[in-house]
DNA sequence: CCTACCGATCGGTAGG
DNA sequence: CCTACCGATCGGTAGG
């Protein structure tokens, strides 16, 4: 017999509640109630409330990094790679709004060790965007004033998708992914006149 | 005699603590301790913990809207207006990181009426960006696929500044404001080739 | 998977 | 501005 309450269902329920009410405002009793059991019964399946948050946040970053590596493995020049990376980034944030939303709001709710793990994964994720931007700049296909600021802007605008995107809204996931990739490419493309004097590349 | 503990000092302390630990994780005793008094003594100055959060969040949106109106009052064409708006947006988020950070993380900690007020102010703030983008598109100075998605992207990348900016970091406020305004203009400028066929304007 | 319960926390009030 | 305290909440454990 399959159990009705298993790890997966607990994770699904906790994700929904963390997204809706916040980690601290969600009680083990709330999570249990969503599954038809009492709070203490959850401890037969999970070691702590914190472990539920850790799973969401580490899992989210690993999913993002996996998607990013997949896309980078396809090769192509910097514009092609950046386009694919942004599309994957946006698609994830539109399709997994709650994971991304919780991941961005609840960093401070993680214990120190796990917060550090998440921050490291995030830094890796961002630096991959920056690397492609630097590569495009070096090859002359991009013209950027600051690869770091460009990658921050691109990553952050994608993160925002998790906040405002609605599956039943006017824009489809495809539409947002396409438009955002286009916006990102415009930001760094070399065939835009630089407004102002060319400046040395900062970090 | 001036009181050592007044509304302003309570607000400063609560802002710092809300930013560092989160609203729910901050106790009235914590705020009092930061001012050298006990938790219950705060109730001689403020009606509730919630009122401290409300003040921060409404005040932040009003500051942003005031700065935005100031800039729009200067006139100019759409590119000039958008540049000034983005610069003001970024400057605020770099100079008031904690206000912006708390404002973006603790929306769910507001009671319903105040959350609605903040959301309305935010919608007004975003729509001003969109209006300038639409004006630029209509006049032919911009070429955008979706004014709404463009304004979301521009607003969200600026919000991100409050998260990663460090006053003692490599980039100065001026530098970030300038670069981000440039990125925003590149996103919508008409003298960029549209990649792909021109599509009808969506919202 | 449950009830009973521990130990700790916290916003706010009473009454100086 | 303080101490004492109320009423309520909550993560987790004990012991079925």
Q: What does the oligomeric state look like here?
A: homodimer
Supply the number of helical segments of chain A. 8
Q: In percent, how helical is the residue content of chain A?
A: 55-70%
Proportion of β residues of chain A?
Answer: under 5%
The global form of chain A is elongated
Cα-atom radius of gyration of chain A: 20 Å
Q: Which blocks of ≥5 consecutive residues of chain A have pLDDT under 50?
A: 193-200
Structure characterization notes:
2 copies of one chain form a homodimer. Chain A is mostly helical and 203 residues long. In chain A, 67% of the residues lie in helices and 0% in strands. Chain A has helices spanning 7-21, 28-35, 49-72, 78-95, 97-105, 112-138, 147-164, 173-188. In chain A, α3 packs across α5 and α6 packs across α7 (147-164). The longest helix of chain A has 27 residues, at 112-138. The first copy, chain A, binds a DNA duplex (16 and 16 nucleotides) through residues 5, 27-29, 37-41, 43-44, 48-49.
């Amino acid at each position: 017999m399959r159990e009705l309450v298993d790890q997966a269902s607990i994770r699904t329920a906790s994700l929904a509640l963390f997204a809706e009410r916040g980690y601290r405002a969600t009680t083990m009793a709330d999570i249990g109630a969503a599954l038809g059991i009492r709070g203490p019964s959850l401890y037969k399946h999970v070691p702590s409330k914190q472990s539920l948050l850790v799973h969401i946040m580490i899992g989210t970053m690993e999913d993002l990094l996996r998607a990013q590596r997949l896309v980078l493995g396809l090769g192509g020049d910097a514009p092609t790679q950046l386009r694919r990376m942004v599309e994957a980034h946006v698609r994830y944030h539109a399709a997994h709004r709650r994971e991304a939303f919780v991941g961005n709001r609840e960093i401070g709710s993680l214990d120190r060790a796990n917060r550090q793990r998440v921050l490291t994964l995030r830094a890796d994720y961002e630096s991959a965007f920056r690397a492609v931007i630097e590569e495009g700049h070096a090859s002359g296909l991009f013209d950027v004033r600051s690869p770091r600021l460009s990658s921050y802007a691109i990553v952050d605008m994608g993160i925002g998708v998790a906040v405002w995107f609605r599956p039943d809204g006017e824009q489809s996931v495809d539409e947002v992914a396409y438009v955002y990739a286009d916006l990102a490419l415009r930001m760094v493309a070399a065939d835009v006149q630089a407004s102002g004097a060319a400046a040395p590349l900062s970090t």
